[in-house]
Amino acid sequence: MKNLINLASALLIVAGSAGAALAAGSSSTTETNTYSSDATTQAFRDGEAAVEAQNWQQAIIHFQQAVDLDPGDADAFNMLAYSQRKNGDLDSAFTNYNKALAIDPDHEQALEYLGEAYLQAGDLDGAMKQLETLDSICWMGCQSYDELESAIAEFKTDNG
């Protein structure tokens, strides 16, 4: 019992010291994180504006900046891949869709867009696998499932 009390006391002291250290250094940490977050957000927004303008080269530059600033951002990897796909670089698009899905395996839009990339490459089976995955995670339906299903139907019509 005495050892348990000593252990609890030691943990409280360590926790208190860590809290004080965090409080003492919080302004520089917050500024760094805020700056990084703001820069990432701005790069992403600039990328979205370039996508809206269908300026794929510019979108790639901005989304690449966003993933460089935050390599854990599945949305940025997804949009980087989308821009690369629209620009005709399927190899890079496949790589970055897979990075997005490694971060967030249930990323609906990345699954949809990856399926569309498979269709662009002429790989109906690859697209069907993405549709099956969307079906398993969108059990109440979702826009990404509907859009990929429609793209697959169009692909089948166009390719007999």
Textual characterization of the structure:
The protein is mainly α and 160 residues long. It is built from 8 helices and no strands. Helix 2 packs antiparallel against helix 3, helix 3 (56-69) runs antiparallel to helix 4 (74-86) and helix 6 (108-120) packs antiparallel against helix 7 (124-137). It is globular, with a radius of gyration of 22 Å. The model is unreliable at 1-35 (pLDDT under 50).
Topology:
Layout: H1 2-24, H2 26-52, H3 56-69, H4 74-86, H5 90-103, H6 108-120, H7 124-137, H8 143-158
Helix pairs in contact: 2-3, 2-4, 3-4, 4-5, 4-6, 5-6, 6-7, 6-8, 7-8
Total helices: the number is: 8
Could you tell me the strand content as a percent range? under 5%
Summarize the amount of helix as a percent range. over 70%
* Overall geometric form: globular
Instruction: Briefly note the structural class of the backbone.
Output: mainly alpha
Secondary-structure element order, as H and E? HHHHHHHH
Radius of gyration: 22 Å
Q: What's the end-to-end separation, in Å?
A: 77 Å
Mean pLDDT: 83
Q: What summary fits the major beta sheet?
A: none
Q: How many DSSP-defined strands?
A: 0
Low-confidence stretches: 1-35
